[in-house]
Amino acid sequence: MYEPGKEETVPTDPFRPEGDDVTRHLGYLLKRAQAALRGAMDKVLREQGLTVPQYSTLELLALHPGMSNADLARATFVTRQSGNVVLRGLQEAGLITRPDAADHGRARPARLTEAGRARLAAVQAAVYAVEQRMARTIPPRRVAALVADLDRIATELED
Question: Rounded to an integer, what distance in angstroms lies between the CA atom of residue 96 and that of residue 56?
Fold first, then answer.
């Protein structure tokens, strides 16, 4: 947790931390933070009967109704095959709808049902609480810069 006035020291060369300890490398620390976030989200979502990809799909469909399986898979960081499994499970649970056949091409746009909207609303507070726990560890004046840095990192590494 962030404590005012108690800043961590930043290595002079973040690419080769003192002693070349891989656990202090930027990439390792990013992965550790991502794994911790995923674990915390898994825990609160399991209590609600959802997985992280299912929850992410519900969130995205609330923002962008009609997304295709391929678009949802990319946005939730799963393969198309896994995305299709997620969509099928959500459809069987009555949380989304998809047409039986595509109007054109192969895309079958997905949309939240009323039950899907209600389920999403029921789990959002728990997931947002995880994000708040995470954010409390960052000095408030640095949050915007961190978000911008993470976005630039992703943009630089995406191909």
Answer: 13
> How many CB atoms sit inside 10 A of residue 67's CB?
20
Geometric angle at alpha carbon 65, from 82 and 132, rounded to 5°: 75
pLDDT of residue 25: 85
Instruction: Calculate the CA dihedral of residues 73, 75, 78, 81 and round it to 10 degrees.
Output: 0
What pLDDT score was predicted for residue 43?
96
Q: Is 37 exposed, middle or buried (0-12, 13-18, 19+ CB in 10 A)?
A: middle
pTM of the full structure: 0.81
The CB density around residue 107, as the number of other CB atoms within 10 Å, is 16
- pLDDT per residue as tens digits for the range 65-99: 999 999 999 999 999 999 999 999 999 999 999 98
Angle separating helix axes 114-135 and 26-46, nearest 10 degrees: 140
Query: H helices of the chain, where?
Result: 26-46, 52-63, 69-75, 80-92, 114-135, 143-157
Instruction: Evaluate whether 47 touches 55 at the Cβ level (below 8 Å).
Output: no
Which tokens sit at 33?
């933070």
Does residue 9 surpass a pLDDT of 60?
Answer: no
